[in-house]
Amino acid sequence: MAASLAKRTWVEINPKALFNNLDLCKQIAPDAEIMAVVKADAYGHGLIETVKTLDPKIDAFGVATLKEAMTILPIMERCKMVMILGALLPDERETAIKNNINVTVSSLQEAQEYNDLGRTNNKEVKVHLIVDTGMGRLGFTEKNFLRDCEEIRSFKNIDIVGMATHFPCSDQNDEFTDHQIERFKSLLKSSNIDPKWIHLANSAASLRIGSSGGTMIRPGLMIYGISPTELNDPRLQPALEWKARINQIRILEEGSSISYGRTFVTKKETKVATIAVGYGDGYPRSLSGQGAEVIVKGKRCEILGRVTMDMIMVDVSSIDEPIETGDEVILIGKDGEESISSKELAKKAGTIPWEILTGISPRVIRVIKNNR
């Protein structure tokens, strides 16, 4: 029954844009395999929808949690590798092993525990050794890596299929990132391991220097068509549009207050449209009073007062053509000559585009756009 309900607010995913961005990944790192990072509901784009779209063209998927991995395993057809990028909790590990999911290892103790579970389940655990070269989140310290790696190599139920590190500031500090790459290469050379997958580069590093010397890259934000740096990259095509519908249109007299706290009071007669989206859908409350806009009939219209849980109010007085309840409004996307990006919303909300996208809530329907 739910499938037949009319949409109030929804996200449209453009497969052509995803494929364009994937092609760019292949151009900038032609000798590397590609792990599409689809954690956090594919950065708000819809996990299942995105995986189904990318599966025929991708080498691996990277997720953050066991739940995400188990969700996509049944729908993966061509792609054969899924990796959990974060550290698994002890009571999650056996399920990952039984389902042949690639896991990270950041310490000798963790490797020993995986080896024991592998022996118990008669499985060879596919692990990626993580080296902390400056992120400070996961990974072997550089001081202990070579010593610990030598012992791990002797574990009979551990298959070291990958070695990786993570860049904390590849979008803003090239010198530190280059230093990380050199340290990583030195450790790999001295480790006497030969993993299939060597991966360092996230989106920002991939756009600047390709594979960073690895055999695989891990694009996240750029897969979805957004540059992770302050500068926009014209080669990228945003894959997401976020829309909602007008559910009320009213004429308010001068002196009318709008939304909680009466933070906005009309200075003249104002035509106000109420839009069926709010912070319960992930539209940030922090946009209140920050000059945020939506696009109505190809024109920008400012949000009035505070963002509420289920609705926002916008000034549509400047719209000349007829407006009706049920009309579509653009929250993120393009209409005519006007466009609003996740970066624009992030700047006005005092956050980053990653948070804007991943904050789009599950009650917002995800739809694959038909480009035919």
Instruction: Determine Rg (CA atoms, Å).
Output: 24 Å
Count of runs of 4 or more consecutive helical residues: 11
Number of structural domains: 2
Distance between the termini: 27 Å
Say what oligomer this is: single chain
CATH superfamily caption of the largest domain? Alanine racemase
CATH class of the largest domain: Alpha Beta
The profile of the biggest β sheet is:
9 strands, mixed
Alpha-beta content class: alpha/beta
**What form results from the Cα inertia axes?**
elongated
CATH architectural arrangement of the largest domain: Alpha-Beta Barrel
Helix content: 25-40%
Mean pLDDT across the residues is 95
Number of beta strands = 20
Query: Unreliable stretches, pLDDT < 50, 5 or more residues?
Result: none
Q: Work out the strand percent.
A: 25-35%
User: Can you tell me the CATH topology of the largest domain?
Assistant: TIM Barrel
Structure, explained:
The protein is built from eleven helices and 20 strands. The mean pLDDT is 95. It is elongated and about 80 Å long. The strands form four sheets. Strands 1, 11, 14, 15, 16, 17, 18, 19 and 20 form a nine-stranded mixed β-sheet that branches. It folds into two domains: 15-224, Alanine racemase (TIM Barrel, Alpha-Beta Barrel); 240-368, Lyase, Ornithine Decarboxylase, Chain A, domain 1 (Beta Barrel), CATH 2.40.37.10. The chain is an alpha/beta fold and 372 residues long.
